[in-house]
Amino acid sequence: MTTRKVKGILRYVLLVVLAMFFLFPIYWMFVSSLKSPSEIFAFPPKLIPENPVWSNYTKVFSQVPFARYMLNTFFVASVVTIVALLLHSMAAYSLARLKYPGRNLLFILVISTLMIPFSAILIPLFLIVRNFGWIDSYRGLIIPAIPHAFGIFFLRQFYLGFPRELEEAAIIDGSGLVRVFFKIVLPLSKPVLSALAVFFFLANWNSFMWPLVIINSPEMRTVQLGIAQYGGEYNNPWAIQLAACTVALIPTLIVFVVLQKQLMQSIKMTGMKL
Amino acid sequence: MNRKNRERLVGYTFIAPDITGLIIFAMVPAIVALVISFFSWNGLSDMLFVGLDNYRTMFQDPQWRNSIFVTLKYSVFFVPLNFVFALFLAMLVQKPGPGIGLFRAIFFAPTAMSMVAVSFVWKYMFQPYGFVNYFLSFFGITRQPLLGSMSQALYSIAVVSLYMSVGYYMVIFLAGLNEISNEYYEAAEIDGASGVQKFFNITLPLLKPTVTFVLVMTFLQSFQVFDQIYILTGGGPFYSTSTAAFYIYYNAFQMYQFGYSSAQAFTLFVILLGVSYFMLRALRGGNVSTGS
User: Fold this and answer.
1) What CATH number labels B39-283?
2) Whether B30 and A267 lie within 8 Å, measured CB to CB
3) Could you report how far apart the first and last alpha carbons of chain A are, in Å?
4) How far is CA A256 from CA A260, B29, B129, B175, in A?
5) Which residues of A touch B97 (CB under 8 A)?
6) pLDDT digits over B191-207, tens only?
7) What is the domain partition of chain A in residue ranges?
8) Dist. CA A154–CA A88, nearest whole Å
9) Which of B137, B146, B143 has the alpha carbon at shortest distance from B236?
10) Tell me, what's the ipTM?
């Protein structure tokens, strides 16, 4: 065998070992969620449960309003995503294309908020939202999550490279700027917007620190809070909480499997962080 | 209205909602954090102006010093290992081949997952009778306390963080690696350069903008670590995993010392701003493959 061949085989051996390491926690989450109280800390651990306890999953939904948590999260993440995409593309188009005094200053303002770390403004953000009376509400979860400098920056880059001819033709035809934006520019932005949508949806579905701070009542909980503060089970807590984790992970894994190429592409373009 | 004025009107209208949002939910809070840090306040009572007292308290607070130390320890462990593993993975999956796309997707998958859920399954695996100890037993290692130990808990948390972020930075490195022209490697091969030589004399220097970007991003990320800590250890045992962000959260939302925790938050902000500044300086001039 040539060294090249040996190297090729070695590469795949390494890849398979690493892939197993990456997949194992997810596998373990799932199989352990089906374990009985006697199996959950059996040593050596059972790689496959003998009698899978599927009722662990029904318990997730009967002991706590987990379906409500999912609905809450789905609603919040969807609204944030849709509104953010609309507002960011408008802002980005304005910054990239339209001419008005103070535009550069506004752009610097947008960019400078990139430097503000979330954990540093958590307390004032909580106080401001409390002042608005938005604690424990959808508004409190949704509205502060919308402004996002990275999204604006990302779309601005896209509109800077957008072919001008299409807009100019429409303007000569007598269409107004607003019409041009909504009828021509926005529909042509679909690919880039769908990539961003994946980001926003996942980030909001997985968001934890902000809901933790502003949500008090059980029925307003998001999925992540529901897992972290699971309070229903005393008999087999690990397995049932792992079942809740599996349920919470399923939508993100579906989104990932369907759209992972777009996700990778947009990370390559921007270095955007969830 | 003439065309120029109309363009101005549309321009301002289009950007107004987002700018308002950024001002209210990002700029103002940054300033408010500084203002509150000069007051003693539990969030309900009247605010009492105390000048720099909160900062004085902070510098003498052994818990705060501990949390900065813990954060640094975590960073020093996480940042280099994340760098090495991510670059290693990127080089491993760079060349196309059968199934490579699938491997890339598998390594990248944790990017989409919930930190809370993934932390929870690791917490289960880190238990004394959990899978990690079972795995270690194959290497003749006796049962380890892991999350229950002051010396091991922080590194156990870092393992979870690495699991979650290595694949993401692999994709960033892939973008950087793909921009390096093959001609360099071909020329080096003609000169008889070894793989190690090629890595240190071509790959690493030409990857510099990406390297800087990744190092600074992970540094910023590691200084704000929170979700994993909350789920895995809650800052324990004995504050050994109480990082800066966790301690700030604890002071604000468990102890209701809003003034004092704001002083800490603002200090953290200044530390991170300093780092961001050096990031921009270091990135300037380089051709940044990540586009930022």
Assistant:
1) 1.10.3720.10
2) no
3) 45
4) 5, 34, 32, 19
5) 8, 11
6) 888 888 889 988 988 89
7) 65-229
8) 9
9) B146
10) 0.90
The domain ranges of chain B are 39-283
Contacts 24+ apart (CB under 8 A), A49-58: A53/A236, A53/A239, A56/A236, A56/A239, A56/A240, A56/A243, A57/A33, A57/A243, A57/A247
Whether A109 and B292 lie within 8 Å, measured CB to CB: no
Distance CA B117, CA A19 (A): 19
Per-residue tokens: B110: 């944790």
d(CA A181, CA A107): 20
Q: To which residue do tokens 């081949």 refer?
A: B97
The answer to whether the Cβ–Cβ distance between A90 and B18 falls below 8 Å is yes
Of all residues in chain B, the one with the smallest CA distance to A27 is B121
Look up tokens 């290992």; give the residue: B81
Q: Is B85 on the interface with A (CB under 8 A)?
A: no
CA B41 – CA B133 distance, rounded (Å): 46
Residue B258: the pLDDT is 92
Split at pLDDT 50, 70, 90, the class of A233 is low
Using CA coordinates, name the residue in chain A closest to B22: A147
Chain B closest-CA separation from residue A97 CA (Å): 9
* B177 interfaces chain A, CB cutoff of 8 Å: no
Chain-centroid distance of CA A112 in Å reads 23
Q: How far apart are the C-alpha atoms of B175 and B170, rounded to whole Å? A: 9
Look at the domain A65-229 and name its fold.
MetI-like fold (1.10.3720)
Nearest C-alpha of chain A: how many angstroms from B268?
7
Interface residue of A10, A13, A14, A15 to substitute, partner B, most B CBs within 10 Å: A15
Measured between CB atoms, which of A100, A110, A128 is closest to B11? A100
Q: Please name the helix (run of DSSP H) or strand (run of DSSP E) that holds residue B48, with its range, or none.
A: strand B48-49
Q: Is B82 on the interface with A (CB under 8 A)?
A: no
HEC string of B52-109 equals CHHHHHHHHCHHHHHHHHHHHHHHHHHHHHHHHHHHHHHHHHHCCCCCHHHHHHHHHH
pLDDT at A272 (0 to 100):
52
The residues, ordered by sequence, that sit 6+ positions from B259 with a Cβ below 8 Å of its Cβ are: B36, B37, B38, B39, B40, B41, B47, B50, B54
Mutate to test the interface with A, among B2, B15, B213 (most CBs of A within 10 A): B15
Per-residue pLDDT tens digits for B203-239:
988 898 888 888 888 988 899 999 999 999 998 899 9
Which chain B residue shows the shortest CA-CA distance from A149?
B22
Q: Where are the beta strands (DSSP E) in A18-97?
A: none
